[in-house]
């Protein structure tokens, strides 16, 4: 009967699964190896530290985005919310460490919550809801900063700055924050009921409802999470920059989506990993770093090269997946 | 079978009405489910069975009426409603995963439990692989296992056997029996009379959303049940007689379709089928034996490693488009994901494949479309409020008819039918079968895949039996008996002929 | 002050005649910082540009730095942050990593570059910031700032406006990008500048995001709802040029019915001025090269460097536009 | 545990449902009406011919892009590269203007066609998800445009070419005329041609469409190619109106404006449906919103927040009910 068939398939499936999962990782290893050989400064400890630090902010946002995308949604508001989070943290830092940290988390979490409620309760498309909150968060940021005229500074000696600037073995704290969140995120996704609900919601929403999955609640939670994490990334950035810079985060949502997809998460939902996202962040940051290492590249060519790289990575991945 | 019927209702429905945008799916329905009984819910396609179930389980809120539930309900819905991208074990235990002492999901135990559980249903697939890689029938069994394992007081099954083949039907009926012995009440929806009479105690008949009969099943003669469902007198039905499905067709000598050595690893391996115009060839086999793959390979929807397809002696390029142009059409097995375009109207779904023919210079002609659509709605008795109704709003059986119409209006020379009567009510089924006959008589070459052995035996002139992706034998003439087929399908299941003899 | 007397054009452009009289606070000498002495000739100099050279200001700025580096025999390393603040921090760190001993930075934003300055400090690399003042500490975080005074630019635009309108009129302001401190300063300067002229009122201020087509679109809207607008202050030339197109399309005569003053000094705007469709342009001088390298050289020699060095900005109006057109960038 | 569900009394349920359904289909027209009324009452000099002309002229390029976007969205895709394609078209114009406007325009359209076909190829043949496939061109395309134009804005002086932006036929501006004609063409295409019906079928259920023997790849590539050409047309018109080729800013964020207009106009992002008239009104609605905010001189912060609110309100009304 089916025995022969089903016995043969798992090994095949397992082998392709390994390749699919590792597609981005293979690309990353290759990129790093080549860069290391071609550009002598690429492998310097300083460069690697900076690379990791720059990646950590994006990673924090992208982890939230991973959850959102697995539910079949998308969150375009993270770039604005990230900037808002930074401004709020800087403003809050005058009232001490706790306020500086809590304020962006709460406000950005609230924006995420509203996104989630609108998406889950009213059946509006996530793309458009979060596009609106992208505008809203920017607007709010401009209100707080008097149309961008005020940039709130964080005193250099405050404990909050330490959160962004402090290091262990030269590696900045944000790297560790991102790492912890990645591990936690992976665990939540794969080892908790909530994680299973996330997969089910994105995999087959109608069925998930019939299976008793709290689809609406799950959606509300992932968008809240995404907003909160974007706020946290903003707060970390503010601590790092020692000020609530207003002009950051424009277009960051596209970076976040790109790394999540490069990491093998399906934009249509139902499948994805946090580890893949972290690898995706690594890839994008290495690409940027390499463009910098080339040094002589005309600034107009830089985006052409980024675009081509992005294309190569997704096409490669797609081919591996076949 | 039923030992005692305790008379405390687990579900009581009074005066329920449910309307969807103009369609009254349920009208003032009363319904009572007694503890421990197996209650058949029958009716034509679109009678409101699935809707009643969704009202019972709270998916739909009724417009009027009262529902009293006493106990936990677990449901297997009509279409497989699991998550294809998640693993089999994750699907089985979604919402009640085994935890370790840190409160995290214990994946090893989940897989072990799942494998153990499924073995009881005769499924040995890898439980950590995505559910979507399982055959539809296997998925149906997983859904069954999940529903049963939920420890419910009531289990509702909406056409659970529609994608199962005989052996699995037996497994399922065995499970139903076991549940029954444990005192669990069951609502059982099916269009297959044999099953109903084998296991059910009571019956409720819905017609056009109205409960036209509730009562013990055993005392109700089949013909009367059918007459209740169709709303026609017993006499009328008797006169009409059983369908003449399966009369011998006059086939030409030269095959119009010749598929040779079709191979697509690991699913099919050198399958060859030839069909002559006017001939109905049945494809028999177990779940996963490669019947669907064979059909898909013929029409070019499956990448193949080897093999050729000839139509009237000319090779056909390996794309669906080319195959369609050459005159091959295929009715897909899974109408939800491979058949209907849910957003589009019934009209648009019907004319979809024939659109280029109904257009001039790429501009469509509405009047030509309307004419064709009208013809087919009448001919197949598709129940719609208007041809402009969204196809997603139709009942399962009516959707199936829409798809049949889609293929018929392309005027194909070769028709591949993968489970054409799946989920179709008795009346419509006879019609579809008659239609197949008629088409064959008109000179069409038909490949018929069905899980219902009787349908194959009656309808086909010749049977090709598949086993593990290869042709295990061909049966013709006198050999077209249940015993012969079962023997050819697989040696291990010959004992199923015992069941066969029970009816 | 020197502001009121427009610099006469020389073959080298106004930058050659830069004024350094605006130094604020105590100066900064190499001895105070303990940085090593570096000879400009053959030295590796890093330049971190903030945005793509897609507008004339950035093009001229980068070119000026490149030319001067070549002239003085320094090796120039160049990066472009593509309007991404985090990238600019990485850029500056990588410049240091690649061996830059002196840095010229065109900051993307006044705030947020602290981590980059800290990295430079750690390697004892002096940083000269150009065109945009940062909020960090001069002499400690960076050496000095060379640039225009944006508030002053706004004030000068206001003076031109007062002169051109005779002190009465209804003004529409085309603001720069929101959240940008150039926008903030040029608005403040302009509003302060017209504060003493009660005949001038601002009837609308809308952002055109420093972009020609947005400036044009906003102007088209404003001229419809406020047909009585008689003056436009655009916070850069691009928006001003867009406004000219919009006004012409609405049947107005820019430069006559509606006065237009903007800041930058691009060739397009000055040409319009020559053609009579524009009222005035306050220059924002992008030619930082000579001044920046002078400063680095002086610092190397041990001279005291002021905290702020203001580059002199020229000014164009209908009387001098034709003769100075060659100076526009 | 006995639960009893009592259905709501069935009074007026029907008429309320009919009303929401009507609003759902016609919400965008109502919104445009309301906004027109508001402006007529509270905005100075609103009811003038000049003003309406201005609104239409400004809306024309967005509409042209949105028409293409509506088609792509109908196939369950999205095209993020439209703004970059506009920039490419803008960059091409001055290169060939010497050979006459017709040559320049043709070249720009050819580039749009190629860019679109490339997107379509990635989506249809390579099987990359539309967002990512077109993201690569969004990142790289503008860079390429800048490389072509050497990063410079080029002032244009060709009278014939500029007439596209300033000229009119019988009082109707050329660009508005072109946009209107294109709207009619696209409406005919979607509703009356095989191609159009196949397009929505593919968006509604790609697997089923494939099995029905539809030329899925050809249709997809065609749709993206059309979108590319339309974006190029928009780029040409916007360039002539600006009287300059400005690849750095041409069409910046156009993808978001176009998507917003399409969705606000009632075309769901889930595909399988294209509403051309709705899209036209979606564009007009967003144009009127922007105009209203500018005319009432609201600060950027408030303007952004109001836009967010209006998008949400419009989409909320038009949302598909479960
Ligand atoms: N969501 C919906 N929207 C509109 N109409 C619907 C909807 N669901 C069901 N209907 C309509 O309600 C009627 C009853 O449908 P239902 O699915 O209950 O039939 P059924 O008895 O289960 O038929 P089948 O045997 O074919 O499964 C049909 O006419 C169908 O078109
Ligand atoms: N072990 C498996 N691995 C991957 N896919 C499978 C497996 N078994 C079945 N499938 C998928 O399920 C579908 C149906 O399976 P298959 O064709 O083997 O069954 P069949 O012989 O047609 O029987 P039936 O039609 O009764 O399901 C196919 O589309 C196939 O891709
Ligand atoms: Mg049903
Ligand atoms: Mg099958």
UniProtKB/TrEMBL annotation, chain A:
Membrane-topology descriptor: Multi-pass membrane protein
KW Zinc (keyword) present: no
Superkingdom, taxonomy of origin: Bacteria
Transmembrane segments: 20-39, 51-74, 94-118, 125-144, 171-189, 220-241, 301-320
Record-linked InterPro entries: ABC_transp_permease
Cellular localization per UniProt: Cell membrane
Predominant place of localization: membrane
Keywords: Cell membrane, Membrane, Transmembrane, Transmembrane helix
Ranges in a coiled coil: none
One Pfam family recorded for the sequence: BPD_transp_2
Transmembrane as UniProt keyword: yes
Name of this protein: Sugar ABC transporter permease
Organism field: Lentzea cavernae
Originating gene: rbsC
Automatic annotation (TrEMBL), chain B:
Keywords recorded for this protein, A-Z: ATP-binding, Nucleotide-binding, Repeat, Transport
Keyword Transport in annotation: yes
InterPro entries the record matches: AAA+_ATPase, ABC_carbohydrate_import_ATPase, ABC_transporter-like_ATP-bd, ABC_transporter-like_CS, P-loop_NTPase
SMART domains: AAA
Domain ABC transporter, residue spans: 11-233, 251-493
Molecular-function GO term, any one: ATP binding
Name of the molecule in the record: Sugar ABC transporter ATP-binding protein
Taxonomic source organism: Lentzea cavernae
Taxonomic lineage of the native organism: Bacteria, Bacillati, Actinomycetota, Actinomycetes, Pseudonocardiales
Automatic annotation (TrEMBL), chain D:
Keywords, sorted A to Z: Cell membrane, Membrane, Transmembrane, Transmembrane helix
Membrane topology: Multi-pass membrane protein
UniProt cross-references to InterPro entries, sorted A to Z: ABC_transp_permease
Record-annotated membrane-spanning stretches: 28-49, 55-73, 80-97, 103-124, 131-149, 169-189, 216-238, 250-269, 276-295, 301-318
A Pfam match: BPD_transp_2
Superkingdom, natural source: Bacteria
Localization of this protein: Cell membrane
Protein name stated in the entry: Sugar ABC transporter permease
Organism whose genome encodes this protein: Lentzea cavernae
Gene: rbsC
């Amino acid at each position: 009967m089916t025995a022969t068939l089903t016995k043969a398939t798992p090994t095949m499936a397992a082998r392709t699964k390994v390749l699919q999962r590792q597609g981005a990782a293979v690309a990353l290893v290759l990129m790093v190896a080549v860069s290391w050989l071609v550009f002598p400064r690429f492998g310097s400890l300083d460069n690697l530290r900076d690379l990791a630090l720059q990646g950590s902010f994006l990673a924090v946002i992208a982890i939230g985005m991973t959850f959102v995308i697995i539910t079949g949604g998308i969150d375009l508001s993270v770039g604005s919310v990230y900037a808002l989070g930074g401004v709020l943290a800087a403003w809050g830092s005058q009232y001490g460490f706790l306020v500086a940290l809590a304020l962006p988390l709460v406000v950005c979490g609230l924006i995420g919550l509203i996104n989630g409620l609108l998406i889950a309760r009213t059946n509006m498309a996530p793309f458009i809801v979060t596009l609106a909150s992208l505008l809203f968060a920017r607007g709010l940021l401009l209100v707080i900063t008097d149309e961008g005229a005020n940039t709130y500074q964080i005193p250099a000696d405050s404990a909050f700055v330490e959160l962004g600037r402090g290091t262990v073995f030269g590696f900045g704290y944000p790297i560790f924050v991102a790492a912890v969140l990645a591990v936690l995120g992976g665990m939540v996704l794969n080892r908790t009921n909530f994680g299973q609900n996330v997969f089910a919601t994105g995999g087959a929403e109608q069925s998930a409802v019939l299976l008793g999955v709290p689809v609406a609640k799950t959606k509300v939670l992932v968008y809240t999470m995404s907003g909160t994490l974007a706020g946290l990334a903003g707060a970390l950035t503010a601590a790092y920059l020692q000020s609530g810079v207003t002009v950051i985060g424009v277009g960051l949502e596209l970076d976040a989506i790109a790394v999540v997809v490069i990491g093998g998460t399906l934009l249509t939902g139902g499948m994805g990993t946090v580890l893949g996202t972290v690898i995706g962040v690594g890839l994008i940051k290495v690409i940027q770093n390499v463009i910098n290492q080339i040094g002589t590249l005309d600034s107009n060519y830089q985006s052409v090269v980024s675009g081509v790289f992005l294309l190569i990575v997704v096409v490669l991945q797609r081919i591996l997946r076949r | 079978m039923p030992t005692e019927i305790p008379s405390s209702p687990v579900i009581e429905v009074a005066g329920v009405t449910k309307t969807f945008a103009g369609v009254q799916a349920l009208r003032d329905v009363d319904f009572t489910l007694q503890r421990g009984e197996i209650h058949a819910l029958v009716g034509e396609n679109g009678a409101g069975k699935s809707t009643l179930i969704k009202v019972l389980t709270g998916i739909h809120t009724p417009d009027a009426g009262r529902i009293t539930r006493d106990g936990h309900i677990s449901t297997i819905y009509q279409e497989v409603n699991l998550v294809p991208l998640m693993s089999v074990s994750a699907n089985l235990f979604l919402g009640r995963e085994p935890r370790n002492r840190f409160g995290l999901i214990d994946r090893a135990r989940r897989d072990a439990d799942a494998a153990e559980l499924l073995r009881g249903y005769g499924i040995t697939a890898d439980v950590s692989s995505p559910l979507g890689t399982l055959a539809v029938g296997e998925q149906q069994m997983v859904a069954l296992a999940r529903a049963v394992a939920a420890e419910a007081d009531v289990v509702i099954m909406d056409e659970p056997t529609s994608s199962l083949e005989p052996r699995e039907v037996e497994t399922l009926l065995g499970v139903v029996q076991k549940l029954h012995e444990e005192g669990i009440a069951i609502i059982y929806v099916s269009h297959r009379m044999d099953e109903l009479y084998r296991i059910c105690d009571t019956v409720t008949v819905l017609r056009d959303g109205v409960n036209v009969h509730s009562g013990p099943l055993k005392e109700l003669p089949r013909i009367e049940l059918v007459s209740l469902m169709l709303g026609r007198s017993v006499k009328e039905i008797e006169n009409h007689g059983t369908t003449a499905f399966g009369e011998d067709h006059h086939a030409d000598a030269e095959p119009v379709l010749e598929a040779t050595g079709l191979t697509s690893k690991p699913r099919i391996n050198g399958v060859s089928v030839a069909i002559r115009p006017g001939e109905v060839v049945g494809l028999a086999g177990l779940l996963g034996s490669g019947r669907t793959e064979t059909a898909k390979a013929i029409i070019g929807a499956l990448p193949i490693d080897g093999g050729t397809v000839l139509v009237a002696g000319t090779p056909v390029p390996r794309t669906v488009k080319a195959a369609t142009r050459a005159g091959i059409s295929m009715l897909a097995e899974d109408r939800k994901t491979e058949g209907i375009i849910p957003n589009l109207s019934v009209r648009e779904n019907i004319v979809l494949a024939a659109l280029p023919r109904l257009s001039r210079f790429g501009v469509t002609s509405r009047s030509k479309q309307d004419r064709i659509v009208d013809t087919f709605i009448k001919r197949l008795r598709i129940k719609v409020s208007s041809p402009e109704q969204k196809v997603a709003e139709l009942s399962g059986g009516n959707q199936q008819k829409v798809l049949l119409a889609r293929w018929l209006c392309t005027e194909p020379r070769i028709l591949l039918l993968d489970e054409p009567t799946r989920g179709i009510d008795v009346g419509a089924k006879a019609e579809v079968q008659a239609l197949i006959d008629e088409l064959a008589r008109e000179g069409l070459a038909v490949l018929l895949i069905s899980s219902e052995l009787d349908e194959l035996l009656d309808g086909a002139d010749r049977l090709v039996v598949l086993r593990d992706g290869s042709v295990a034998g061909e049966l013709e003439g006198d050999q077209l008996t249940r015993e012969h087929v079962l023997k050819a399908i697989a040696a291990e299941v010959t004992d199923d002929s015992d069941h066969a003899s029970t009816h | 002050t020197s502001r009121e007397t427009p610099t006469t054009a020389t073959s080298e452009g106004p930058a050659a005649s830069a004024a350094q009289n605006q130094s604020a606070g105590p100066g900064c000498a190499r001895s105070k910082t303990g940085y090593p002495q570096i000879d400009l000739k053959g030295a590796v100099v890093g330049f971190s540009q903030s945005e793509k050279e897609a507008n004339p200001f950035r093009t001229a700025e980068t070119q000026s730095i490149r030319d001067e580096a070549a002239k003085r025999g320094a090796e120039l390393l160049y990066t472009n942050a593509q309007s991404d603040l985090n990238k600019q921090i990485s850029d500056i760190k990588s410049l240091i990593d690649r061996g830059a001993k002196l840095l010229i930075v065109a900051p993307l934003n006044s705030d947020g570059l602290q981590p980059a300055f800290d990295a430079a400090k750690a390697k004892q690399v002096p940083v000269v910031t150009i065109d945009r003042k940062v909020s960090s500490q001069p002499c400690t975080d960076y050496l000095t700032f060379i640039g225009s005074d944006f508030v002053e630019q706004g004030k000068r635009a206001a003076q031109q406006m007062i002169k051109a309108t005779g002190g009465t009129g209804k003004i529409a302001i085309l603001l720069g990008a929101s959240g940008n401190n150039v926008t903030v300063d040029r608005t403040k300067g302009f509003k302060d500048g017209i504060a003493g002229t009660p005949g001038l009122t601002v009837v609308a201020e809308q952002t055109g995001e420093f972009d020609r087509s947005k400036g044009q679109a906003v102007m088209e809207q404003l001229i419809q709802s406020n047909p009585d607008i008689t003056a436009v202050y655009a916070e850069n030339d691009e928006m001003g040029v867009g406004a000219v197109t919009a006004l012409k399309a609405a049947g107005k005569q820019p430069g006559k019915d509606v006065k237009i003053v903007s800041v930058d000094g691009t060739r397009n705007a000055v040409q319009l001025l020559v053609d009579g469709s524009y009222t005035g342009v306050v220059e924002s001088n992008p030619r930082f090269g000579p001044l920046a390298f002078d400063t680095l050289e002086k610092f190397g020699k041990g001279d005291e460097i002021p905290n702020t060095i203001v580059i002199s900005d020229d000014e164009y109006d209908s009387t001098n536009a034709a003769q100075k057109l060659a100076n526009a960038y | 545990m006995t639960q009893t569900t009592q259905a709501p009394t069935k009074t007026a349920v029907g008429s309320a449902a009919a009303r929401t359904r009507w609003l759902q289909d016609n919400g965008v027209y109502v919104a445009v009406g309301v906004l027109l009324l508001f402006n007529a009452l509270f905005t100075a000099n609103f009811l003038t011919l000049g003003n309406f002309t201005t609104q239409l002229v400004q809306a024309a390029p967005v509409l042209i892009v949105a028409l293409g976007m509506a088609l792509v969205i109908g196939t369950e895709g999205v095209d993020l590269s439209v703004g970059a394609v506009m920039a490419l078209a803008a960059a091409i114009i001055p290169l060939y203007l010497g050979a006459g406007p017709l040559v320049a325009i043709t070249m720009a359209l050819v580039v749009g066609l190629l860019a679109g076909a490339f997107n379509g190829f990635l989506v249809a043949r390579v099987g990359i998800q539309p967002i990512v496939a077109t993201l690569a061109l969004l990142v790289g395309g503008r860079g390429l445009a800048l490389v072509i134009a050497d990063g410079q804005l080029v002032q244009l002086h060709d009278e014939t070419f500029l007439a596209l932006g300033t000229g009119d036929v019988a009082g109707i501006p050329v660009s508005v005329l072109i946009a209107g004609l294109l709207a009619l063409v696209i409406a005919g295409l979607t509703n009356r041609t095989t191609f159009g019906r196949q397009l929505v079928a593919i968006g509604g259920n790609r697997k089923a469409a494939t099995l029905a023997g539809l030329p899925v790849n050809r249709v997809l590539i065609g749709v993206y190619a059309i979108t590319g050409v339309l974006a190029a047309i928009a780029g040409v018109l916007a360039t002539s109106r600006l009287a300059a080729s400005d690849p750095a800013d041409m069409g910046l964020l156009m993808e978001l404006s176009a998507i917003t207009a399409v969705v606000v106009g009632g075309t769901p992002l889930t595909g399988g449906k294209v509403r051309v008239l709705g899209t036209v009104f979606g564009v007009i609605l967003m144009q009127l919103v922007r105009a209203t905010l500018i005319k009432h001189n609201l600060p950027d912060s408030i303007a952004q927040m109001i836009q967010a609110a209006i998008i949400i309100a419009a989409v909320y009304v038009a949302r598909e009910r479960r």
